Amino acid sequence: MIKPSIPKGTRDFSPIEMAKRNYIFDTIREVYHLFGFHQIETPAMENLSTLMGKYGEEGDKLLFRIQNSGDCFRGITDEELLSRDVAHLSAKFCEKGLRYDLTVPFARYVVMHREEITFPFKRYQIQPVWRADRPQKGRYREFYQCDADVVGSDSLLNEVELMQIVDTVFTRFGVRVCIKINNRKILTGIAEIIGEAERIVDITVAIDKLDKIGLDNVNAELREKGVSEEAIDKLQPIILLSGSNAEKLATLKNVLAGSEIGLKGVEETEYILNTLAALNLHNEMELDLTLARGLNYYTGAIFEVKALDVQIGSITGGGRYDNLTGVFGLSGVSGVGISFGADRIFDVLNQLDLYPKEAVGETQLLFINFGEKEAAFAMQTLLKVRAAGIRAELFPDSSKMKKQMSYANAHNIPFVALIGESELAEGKVTLKNMATGEQKLVSPEELISALNN
Fold it and tell me: 69, 158, 213, 276: least CB-packed within 10 angstroms?
C-alpha cells in the first residue's frame, strides 16, 4: 500500500501549531483594526490575464496554472500538440491560476470596486498565496501573507502609521526588532551624483548584499556590472555612512545637494523619522542606505524589519508605490503598504519561546467518564463551566481510568474532574491538579472559581 503524501513545499499543521499561528494572525488582525484598517478577501484563483505580466518573466514562470475543466483539448490542433510549445499550450489549457501575492489581486479589487470605495482606502488581507518555486528551508510553495495598504493618499502620515503598526505588533509579540527605513528617491539621487543614473538597479542590487558578502565583494560586483572606478570611489563614503539618523541625513543633504530627487527623498525620510521620534516607539528606527527592496516596484519610502535576538531574514517589509492600479487602466492611485512574514514570525516566536500559555493552551479541564449517570451530571456541569469561558471536555467513552488519564497527559490538560458515586450524591466534583496531584472536593461554582484563578 502506497503511503500518502503531500506536495513538496506544502505543510500540515498540528493543533498546537495552529494555535500558535492563530495567535500570530489574531494579534496582527487586532492591531490592524486598532488603526482603522478593514479586512477584504479575494479568491484563491484569479484569471491568468489578471496575473500574467505583473511579476516579470521569472514571476510568470512561478504561477500555478489551473487546467480548464471539461474537454481542455477542444480547439487545439494536432500540430499545436505536437509542437510541445509549453507556453502556447498552457495558454490554451489554462484560463485561471492561483494567486502569487495579495497585491495584484488587491489592485484588481480596487479597480473593479472603485465606485463603492471611499478613498483613502485602508485595507488588510490575511490569506495564503502560491508560488511554483523550488522548495527549500524557509521557502514554501504555499504560505500566508498579512498585508495592509492605504491607497488613494499621498500623505506621509500613512508611512508613519504603518511604522506604528509594526512597532505595536512586535511589542505585543515581545520581539525586539530594528525597523530599517530608506527611500527610493535617495537611491536614485545617489546613482545620479556618482554619474551612473542608468545603473541604479545594478548598484542597489550590489549594495543590498553588503551584510552578506562584504564591501570588497560588493565593489567587485559593481565593477563586473560596468560601474566606473571613479563612481565606485564616490560611492564608498555613502555605503559606509554611519552615525545617528540625524547625522546620516545631514551628510546626505550635502552629498545629494546636486540632485533634486535625492533631496526630496531626504526630506520625506526626515519627516517620517522626526514624526515617529515624537511618538516614542518601543523599537529602534534606523536609516539604512543599503536597503533596496524590489526597486522596480517601490517609488518612495521603503521599510524592512529585522529581529535582533534571532538570526533570520526580514520578517516584515513594505514601501510606497505610485501606480498600483495603472496596469488595470486606473492610473494615479498612489499607495503604501506593509506585509508581515507570518511564517518567519512563527519561527522567531518558537526560537525565543514567546507564545503566551493562554494563546496555545487547549483544553483546561477534562471530565472523566465513569458511566451514564455520572456523564449526565458532567454534561450539566460542563454547561456552567463553558459559559464561564473555561475550555473543557468530557471523555466520550467510559473507558478504563488509566486510558482517560493518559489522554489528559497526552493533551497537556492541567486539570481533571472526577465524578463518582459519592460526588454524584453530593452534587460535587473532585478536582485534580495534574501537575501536583492535589485533589479537592468542590461545587460546580467553586470549580469555576478555582480554574479562573
Answer: 69
Residues 125, 147: Cα–Cα separation, whole Å: 5
Q: What is the DSSP letter of 277?
A: H
Q: Name the CATH code of domain 362-452 (choices 3.10.20.740, 3.30.230.10, 2.60.40.290, 3.40.50.800).
A: 3.40.50.800
φ, ψ for residue 427, nearest 5 deg: 70, 35
Dist CA 152 CA 336 (whole Å): 9
Contact predicate 332/323, CB 8 Å: yes
- H/E stretch holding 406 reads helix 401-410
Residue 81 above 70 pLDDT? no
What backbone phi and psi angles, to 5 degrees, belong to 31?
-70, -40
pTM of the predicted model as reported, rounded to 2 decimal places:
0.88
Task: With H, G, I as helix, E, B as strand and everything else as coil, classify residue 243.
Answer: coil
**Helix, strand or coil, per DSSP, at residue 274:** helix
Identify the three-state secondary structure at position 10: coil
Q: Within 10 Å of residue 228's Cβ, how many Cβ atoms?
A: 14
Task: Output the pLDDT for position 339.
Answer: 96
